[in-house]
Amino acid sequence: DADVTQTPRNRITKTGKRIMLECSQTKGHDRMYWYRQDPGLGLRLIYYSFDVKDINKGEISDGYSVSRQAQAKFSLSLESAIPNQTALYFCATSDREREQFFGPGTRLTVL
Amino acid sequence: SQQGEEDPQALSIQEGENATMNCSYKTSINNLQWYRQNSGRGLVHLILIRSNEREKHSGRLRVTLDTSKKSSSLLITASRAADTASYFCATVKTGANNLFFGTGTRLTVIP
Lengths: 111, 111
What we know:
A: seven-stranded mixed β-sheet; about 55% strand; B: mainly beta; six-stranded mixed β-sheet; about 0% helix
């Protein structure tokens, strides 16, 4: 089984809809992250969490919110989706400042 | 943003040749990491080099770090078609806890 899983893997939605992307990990890491990737670009950090009671904004948090339900679960919400949020979204985990382990990604299209 | 920049943006070589990718960054770092991404998939960690290290090897990978020039290079020796992917450098800034990704080098290895 994969160490970091994301659901759904693909989602098409309409402008204004609320969307939740979910991430689960079995690595036992305290740190979890949400990134977005746009074509031809690197990853940009949306939010990160270093433990269940810790939530921090990243570079591009506007229009997004997160919830850390448990050590193993970190969800990303788009309260009112807009077309420029169309992107590939990745969840990742890490043990302190060491390497990060990524999920397979969620391809989100906002029409 | 401390996002790094990779050079070249794209690289095409014959199988068996060596591939060299470069990364430059802007501020002092704790460590620098290289990741690989197959098309549309999650990133996979390749190697981490700390700020007090100058060179590191892992299999066919060789990474160098020059903190005075704020640059790093990734060398893949004896390339294979399966090495075709995008390669990203990412830095952990001194005093920070997060990774900042570069824009990547797209490597194509021709069989």
